[in-house]
Design brief:
The chain is mainly beta. It has strands at about 1-10, 10-20, 45-50, 90, 95, 110, 115-120, 140-145, 155, 160, 165-175, 180-190, 190-200, 210-220, 225-230, 240-250, 275-280, 280-285. Helices cover about 0% and strands about 35% of the residues.
Length: about 290
């Protein structure tokens, strides 16, 4: 193709040097040196490269040196607008992963292995076969463990406007697979997050098993909620969540966690309690 060197005054540029087509005989050939003269009043220099018709059209430059004065336009400090806190979502805030902005919709930000999915997950013997609503078009968020690692995958909500009196969050989860790792739900104040609920190991017996619902307390200082998923040791470790809701006030009794069939020896659910669900023994109060 073509390489050109230009001198500019403001946004108006003039070509001062140009070369077209192949200028060297091999990739081991010595680099060529070019000298470009620019007039007084120049405010900037510009290189323009136009590729050829195929992949064999790479053009390179290196070791640029400017000798002599260049008149630069006076610079002014940028005018800064007053900064304000990011807009926070008012409660109730609901996300079923079917609409909204971002790769996982609803404004979530994610790291590592979180993905959006409808229907079943790609791997045999793990994950749900449908979203929590039970339709083929219902989307949900999950971590795909095929070829994965056990590094934590974070899924963080948009900023929330939680009243000083606090609130609660509910969500559905599906953890089917022989090598399921751990799913945790957290509340965050800025970048400092506290675990409010966690479950480890396989919690469902098939990909068609009904999704389980869980609930956790959201203190009034909360700015975001976050889900942390840690995969197991194989592709049969997909973990999914769906139908997330954050509401003001106190959770009604019917919204108590359903991480396991019964509370067993845990007794009444204390406000702010952390629940840990294990594969073999059901639910343990912490």
């Amino acid at each position: 193709g073509t390489l050109s060197a230009q001198s500019c005054v403001g946004t108006t540029c003039t070509t001062r040097w140009t070369r077209t087509r192949q200028q060297h005989t091999s990739n081991g050939a010595a680099w060529s040196r070019a000298v470009v003269t620019y007039p007084a009043g120049t405010t900037g220099l510009r290189l323009v490269a136009i590729g050829g018709t195929s992949f064999t059209g790479d053009i390179s430059v290196d070791t640029l040196q400017v000798v002599g004065p260049i008149t630069r336009a006076p610079t002014r400090s940028p005018t800064r607008s007053p900064t304000s806190a990011p807009t926070a979502a008012t409660l109730p805030w609901n996300c079923n992963f079917n609409s909204g902005s971002g790769p996982l919709r609803c404004g979530w930000t994610s790291t590592n292995r979180w993905q959006l999915r409808t229907g079943g997950t790609p791997s045999f013997g793990t994950g749900p076969n449908l979203g929590q609503a039970g339709t083929t078009s219902d989307a949900y968020g999950y971590i795909e463990m095929t070829g994965g690692n056990r590094n934590p995958s974070f899924l963080t909500s948009i900023r929330l406007n939680v009243p000083a009196s606090g609130g609660f969050a509910t969500f559905y989860y599906h953890m089917y697979g022989a090598t399921i790792g751990t799913l945790s739900a957290q509340t965050c104040v800025g970048t400092t997050c506290t675990t409010r609920w966690t479950a480890s190991g396989q919690q469902h017996t098939s990909n068609s098993a009904a999704w389980s619902q869980a609930q956790f307390v959201v203190p009034g200082t909360t700015t975001n909620i976050r889900f942390v998923a840690i995969g197991g040791t194989s592709f049969t470790g997909d973990i999914a969540i769906d139908t997330v809701s954050v509401q003001a006030g106190t959770a009604p009794p019917s919204a108590a966690p359903t991480a396991s069939p019964t509370l067993g020896s845990c007794g009444a659910v204390a406000p702010g309690a952390i629940f840990h669900v294990t594969q073999a023994s059901g639910q343990t109060c912490v």
